[in-house]
Amino acid sequence: MAGTWACLIPFILVIPISILTKQVQSGLFVGLLVGSYLLYPNILGGAEHMIKYLISNIVVTNNIRIIVFLYAFAGLVGIIKLTGGIKGFVHLISKKVKTKKSAMALAWLSTFGTFSEPDFRIVTIAPIMKSLSKRLGMSKKRIGYAIEFTANPAIALIPIATAFVGYMVSIIGQALKTSGIHQSAYMVYVKSIPFNFFSIVIILVGIYYSFFKKEKENEDEHLENVEKDHQTKSFNQNKKWEHIPPHTTVLNAEGTNLKGSFNMETGTMVSGTDIHGERTGMFDRNRLNGSTPDHADQQEDLDAAHRAYIKETPIRPWNLIVPISLFLLLTLFLSWWDGHFKASGFFNAFIKSDMLGVMLTSLLIAIIIAFAIFIFQRFPVSSLVTHFVKGGNELVNVIIMLALIWAVTAVSEDLGFSKYITSHLTSWIPHMFIAPSLFILGAVISYFIGSSWGTWGLLMPLGVTLATQSQTSILMAIGAVFASGTFGAFASPLSDNTVTTCTVLEIEVVKYARSKLVPALIAAGISVVLYGVFSFFG
């Protein structure tokens, strides 16, 4: 079965099923299940090996680190929100951020402090931008764009102190070794950065979209604005809720008892008829899944009660500034500290550091100190722990998706995906089209699997091998591979960046990802032309 057209089947199934069901995980699940049965075609074999693929990839050191990091950081954001950090920071910067353009500038400039890892950037800045959007009437879609333009694309271009560097250098080193090339993998990576055309172009496109493109109220944004107006009216009709004491009975707009109480500590309806799913923390699962509650009026009542709870949140900007600044400073210091034992020189120390391990250590210290500060401020320990767990649980959706992506990537490799592609590419692609073809192929793959790392791991050996055999630029081939993976990380509905952004901003994944295709395809088209021109004249 390895090396045949059957290796394409899992990827062919993923996107259509995800679009039809409006659930990313369902498409990945089916792709993984089908791939497992293609490898082990008996009644129990496929199911058993599907579980093995999931578990074996979750327990990979770097993968489990990513899972723990995402959960713990979301938990930290949860307690920062509880203690007034996010609300306080918004109040602090509100004096300077008075326009949509200044808010966009904040989103872009925040890259300098959140460039370590894309999901870290998203879960850090997105809640702040979401709060600003409510005050300034900004489109959540445009906010998501601004954050993602400077997430994976920007971080892929930074050769130091990111979670990407170690992985990117390692796969280049393995590919160079396989091809018999004896060069410094890190120096090859640095030299290939200018050839990551997609990352460079999409950032330029992002500047245009963020600051110069006039916002058109399309259907999705119109519906969003209508919903905002409706919620505002509902809120105005229920101003008496602004000072709801803990555990007070809540009435809906018609005066009917909802048979529950609103818990000011957790911000939820308890012992009542909260039949629409949880609406706590940062994220709205109904929006994420693209579903609409059957009883909109009651949901609006619950939302109004939730807003009453938000009014009671303290305004303490330093509860955000101190933990996040501490995390960033510790990450930079420990990156050098970890690497200086393995290499000589300041910059070489960052190159050799175990970035994911360093980030986890820094995050743990920041969480411990944050808990100590908040306890000193007399926030109940039980409330802090509850909100930490709730914050982490909000990203379980992303964690499940990541586990499925890793497993699908492993199944595709066992099905002979790389070998099949290699054998069908080398025979008919002209040498000058190697880099453009690598980019196009990788962009398609990354869109289907939603993983930049998975695409890089799959295609880097192929890219270096093709470049070596055809005597074309290895640097351009490597740049094309990295660019292609970045395309999927930005544009795919299966991307953890996309799902995390949608989760935090409470927007539907598939519609949002579909709208991102326009700037992504513009940047991709320009990138293909650039690869063609450089290959022809290079």
Automatic annotation (TrEMBL):
The keyword Transmembrane applies. The chain crosses the membrane at residues 5-21, 27-45, 66-86, 106-128, 149-173, 193-212, 317-337, 357-376, 388-408, 428-450, 471-491, 517-537. One of its GO terms (cellular component) is plasma membrane. This is Sodium:proton antiporter. It is a multi-pass membrane protein. Its main location: membrane. It comes from the Bacteria. Pfam families: Na_H_antiporter (PF03553). Keywords: Cell membrane, Membrane, Transmembrane, Transmembrane helix. Residues 306-535 form the Na+/H+ antiporter NhaC-like C-terminal domain. InterPro entries: Na/H_Antiport_NhaC-like_C (IPR018461). It is found in: Cell membrane.
